[in-house]
Specification:
single chain, five-stranded antiparallel sheet, four-stranded antiparallel sheet
Length: 196
């Protein structure tokens, strides 16, 4: 799988499916849409299902409950979840007018992580629509990741810290502070439940 992002576009490739998020970042016009690429053919979601602000990050999981799930972290603070191209749920995932900066879906599609520019990371139970955990950094969180079995979470921040969290208890397991600058991304090794 490959992932690329820029100010105007976020794209993800997962098992041969291309997804591209296009938006007009300074307006709430009908051009704001999520475009799904299957091969060379784009399929746009209707404007009524499109995000109403810029998409900061897009996560995809094709094995989620026998359907394809797309999760968008948006600058208006909302997480938006599509299942098989239909807007399934959207919710305000921040407080104090924060913008979302990152998101992640668990492999089974039951859990999601969201991160914002105020340093908060939240773990969501998507089946019950509730927040399970709230973790913090001192500055903007740039990225977040879940282990393959969704028992551990990683968070990377502008505060130059990488933090490892226990999902069930919410406990901070480890803090890696040797970075000389912003930690811009983080990931678990594919299929790995621990750290390398």
């Amino acid at each position: 799988p490959a992932l690329a992002a820029s100010l105007r576009e976020a794209a993800a490739r997962w098992n041969g499916t291309w997804l591209r998020a296009l938006w007009s970042p300074y307006s709430t016009s009908p051009q704001e849409s999520l475009v799904i690429w299957r091969g060379a053919l784009p399929v746009a979601l209707s404007a009524s299902q499109a995000p109403h602000s810029a998409i900061s990050r897009l996560a995809v999981e094709e094995e989620a409950a026998a359907s394809t799930a797309w999760l968008a972290a948006c600058a208006d603070g909302f997480l938006r979840l599509w299942l098989d191209g239909i807007l399934h749920h959207e919710w305000l995932a921040t407080s104090h007018n924060a913008a979302l900066t990152a998101c992640m879906l668990s492999r089974d599609g039951n859990y999601a992580l969201s991160a914002d520019d105020r340093g908060q990371v939240q773990l969501w139970d998507l089946s019950r629509n509730i927040r399970l955990q709230l973790w913090t950094h001192k500055r903007e969180v740039c990225d977040c990741a879940l282990s393959a079995d969704a028992t551990l979470a990683l968070t990377a921040s502008q505060d130059r810290l990488l933090r490892l969290w226990d999902v069930a208890s919410g406990r901070l397991c480890a803090e890696f502070y040797e970075h000389p600058a912003t930690v811009t991304c983080c990931a678990f090794a594919l299929g790995d439940n621990g750290m390398r």
